[in-house]
Amino acid sequence: MSSNSLKAVEKRVAKRRQVYRPILQSPFVNEEHQWPLVKDQAFVLEVLKTSILSKCQHLQEVPMPEWPWSMLVEYNDIVGYLSGKEDDDALDVLLFVCNKEPDVPGVMLQQIPLLSYMSSHRVTIVQLPKGSLPIINRLVELPYGMLLLKCDSKLDPSFQRQIESQVSPVEGGFPWLDNLKYSATKVKLIKTTAAIPQKNKT
Amino acid sequence: MAKNKSKGNQNMDENGTILANPPKAIGNVELFQRLNYLYQLSTWNTMLYGKNDAMSRSYIKNLDFISKKTKCGLLPSIKRTICKKCKRVLIPKKTCTYSVSSKLSKRKKHDKEKIRKNEDFIVTCVCGEVKTFRVGLNRSHATFYEKEGTLINL
């Protein structure tokens, strides 16, 4: 038998109703295709750990510019490097991103694929698997879950080849940048509630 | 008669909210198509002619006006890429710069934990307008639209 308390009666009377409102999504944000697909993410993490990060652990007391490879971990440094003026000697760059971690703000991650595309350097974005940030932080601290490696003469070319072989190119990532191609309207529905107007019995 | 029957069969959750099925189609699709077209046109103009293109700004001005008058919503992924002051589309290396900064006095700058809590993500438009996101307060913050189950595909 149901209770007749005031609270129970109040709950039985509907106050709100579920509504679905249409909303426009950005034509250039496609969650499925924005980040390049990495075939074997666990393998990439393992290669990164053994080839770079484990060695970095022993270089904690050495300042970063003197390390045996050119590496950036700070957000401002990475953004400054990628948005630098166009050079004749554009480098290949590997950008490792922990984009599935709750500790990395989403609003900062949203800008990375576009920034990489706009950069004068040839950037290969490598997304790392979920749970990789705590593992990496034990070896090198990544404050924003990003690690940029410049593929210059200091870096082992076989390491670069191993990583790049695992990354497939972005499918239709930013259509308007390559040529004039209209992207269809993406309308989604927001699931929310609205108040039901109460009728006054006076 | 049918109305009464449907009222009797209303599904209600524990908070007293009447549940409903999502619609199969939406109204005013042409308005959304227009907004989508204006946004793409403006972005393309900015990419071609850079920060000093008046046409791209006027397209966004139209987009803003139409979305407000017709109450057609835009997701934050669009709104974050528009400057509220000059109506430019914010594209890195073309019309905006990104940075992270912490508003702390020099005395407190040795405390790493405090620095992280006071971090702001700043998007600066070429017109000087600044968008600030307080990312340090809650790094795992997600807007209402980014939460799981809020957005439904048609």
Automatic annotation (TrEMBL), chain A:
It holds the Pfam family RNase_P_pop3. It comes from the Eukaryota. InterPro entries: RNase_P_Pop3. One of its GO terms (cellular component) is nucleolar ribonuclease P complex. GO terms for molecular function: ribonuclease MRP activity; ribonuclease P activity. One of its GO terms (biological process) is tRNA 5'-leader removal. PANTHER family: RIBONUCLEASES P/MRP PROTEIN SUBUNIT POP3 (PTHR28272), RIBONUCLEASES P_MRP PROTEIN SUBUNIT POP3 (PTHR28272:SF1). This is Uncharacterized protein. The lineage of its organism: Eukaryota, Fungi, Dikarya, Ascomycota, Saccharomycotina.
TrEMBL record, chain B:
InterPro entries: Rpr2/Snm1/Rpp21 (IPR007175). One of its GO terms (biological process) is intronic box C/D snoRNA processing. Pfam families: Rpr2 (PF04032). GO terms for molecular function: metal ion binding; ribonuclease P activity. GO terms for cellular component: nucleolar ribonuclease P complex. Keywords: Metal-binding, tRNA processing, Zinc. Belongs to the eukaryotic/archaeal RNase P protein component 4 family. This is Uncharacterized protein. The gene is KAFR0F02200.
